[in-house]
Amino acid sequence: PLNSLNSKKVECMRNLNNVIILFALVFISTVSCAKIKNEVYSNAHYYIQFLGINVDSIPLIANYEKHLNIEFGDEGLSWRSLYFFNEGKHVLTMETDWQDTVHISRISIYSEEIQIDNVHPGDKIIKVTKPHAYSIEPCQDGFLLLKHNYCKGVFLEVDISDVSPTSELWRGECKIEEIPDSLCIECIILSQ
Q1: Considering the entire predicted model, what is its pTM?
Q2: For residue 158, what is the enclosing H or E element?
Q3: Which single residue of 44, 107, 183, 191 could bond 116 by disulfide (Cβ 3.0 to 4.6 Å)?
Q4: Coil, helix or strand for 70?
């Protein structure tokens, strides 16, 4: 009877070990899947797939809230945009344009959790350490665009509203190395 009791304890311990191992594997699998999912959504390249897509066909992304908006410009022109929020914070905007109000033509990424080439919105310009990867593209309204030289349609928008409008920076007549380190990346822009 004592032998029988010991063998039942051993069998019970084996079953308990198997259950613990099974729970551990499920936990590791769940954590790995969540990490992979977050890594996908945190890379700006993921969002390129939505360019040219019908605005009404854009799915929910991650756990972001999605809001459709009508934008109005000069001379009564309008276009549609989708605003995405995560826990009340503006993550990104997908926009059509006034010529084609159906298809997404521009995506602006504002979340510090999304990156391209390890550069995030909110980073200081000094983070753009590869001057040969970007070229300066002048823009209007107190912004400077840094065009990605290897990824067509990818830009970093730099806020230069505090820089004198008479400076070379406003005209885009300077080198990336000459942009003050104190300036920040406002957003990542993806366009067609």
Answers
A1: 0.76
A2: strand 154-159
A3: 44
A4: strand
DSSP string, 98-146: SS-SSB--EEEE--TT-BBTTB-TT-BGGG---GGGEEEEE-STTEEEE
What is the chain's Cα-based Rg? Answer: 25
Which H or E run includes 54?
Answer: none
Q: Which residues contact 55 (CB under 8 A, 6 or more apart)?
A: 68, 80, 81, 82, 94, 96, 101, 102, 103, 104
The model's pLDDT over 4-51, given as tens digits with 9 standing for 90+, comes to: 656 666 565 666 555 555 444 444 444 333 333 466 788 999 999 999
Give CA angle at 60 (55, 65), nearest 5°: 100
What is the C-alpha separation between 136 and 172, in angstroms, rounded?
Answer: 6
Mean pLDDT of 164-183: 81
